[in-house]
Amino acid sequence: MRNILIILAHPNLANSQINRTFIDAIEQNDKVTIHDLYLTYPDGVIDIDAEQTKLSSADVVIFQHPFYWYSAPAILKEWFDLVLQFNYAYGPKGNALKGKQWLTVITTGGSKEAYCTQGHNRFTIRELLTPFDQTAHLCEMEFLPPFVAHSARNLSKNPDKLKHLAEQYQKFIHELQDDNFDSESVSHLQTLNQRWEQ
C-alpha cells in the first residue's frame, strides 16, 4: 500500500464546507498524511527541510486547494518556490521526486461550463493547470488528471450531493493507495465530475 501526502492549502478551512468534508472523509486513513500549510505555518515561514522530509516518504503527493485567480493560494505558491529547489526537485542532481505521482484536487466557484473555450473563463481547467503540469514534468513526476469539484457554492448547499462527493473522494484515495488507478482513464474522472454537478 502506497503512502499519500496531502498538501492542504486553504486559508479558511473551518469555513470551507467542501474541503473540510473531503478531509473528514479520509483523516482516519493511516496511510494518508494531511499537511495543512496554513495551520503549520501561521507566520508564513516555511521549513524547507521539514517539507522535503515529508515528501521523501510519499508515493503520491496531492495538492488540495481552492482555485484562486486561476492558480493556488499564496502559501502554496511560496511552498513551490522554496521547497522545489534546484538539485533537489530538478536539475542535474535533482531526482528526489522522480517517479512520484502528482494530483491536483481543487474546488471552483464557477461551473464546469464556465471553464471552456466558449465559457466565461475562456480556458479549460486542464489548460489553466498547465504551470502545475510543467512543474511536475520538470520534477519527473507523473501529473494525474485533476480532481475538480465545480460550483462549490451550490454544492455546499446540498448535503446529499456533498456526502456523495466525499464518498467518491474517499474511493479515489483508496484507488491511489492500492495503485489501482489507471492514469490514462480520463473517462473515470469525467464521470466523477459529471456526478458532482448533477
Automatic annotation (TrEMBL):
<dbReference type="InterPro" id="IPR029039">
    <property type="entry name" value="Flavoprotein-like_sf"/>
</dbReference>
<feature type="domain" description="Flavodoxin-like fold">
    <location>
        <begin position="3"/>
        <end position="171"/>
    </location>
</feature>
<protein>
    <submittedName>
        <fullName>NAD(P)H-dependent oxidoreductase</fullName>
    </submittedName>
</protein>
<dbReference type="Pfam" id="PF02525">
    <property type="entry name" value="Flavodoxin_2"/>
</dbReference>
<keyword id="KW-0560">Oxidoreductase</keyword>
<dbReference type="InterPro" id="IPR046980">
    <property type="entry name" value="KefG/KefF"/>
</dbReference>
<dbReference type="InterPro" id="IPR003680">
    <property type="entry name" value="Flavodoxin_fold"/>
</dbReference>
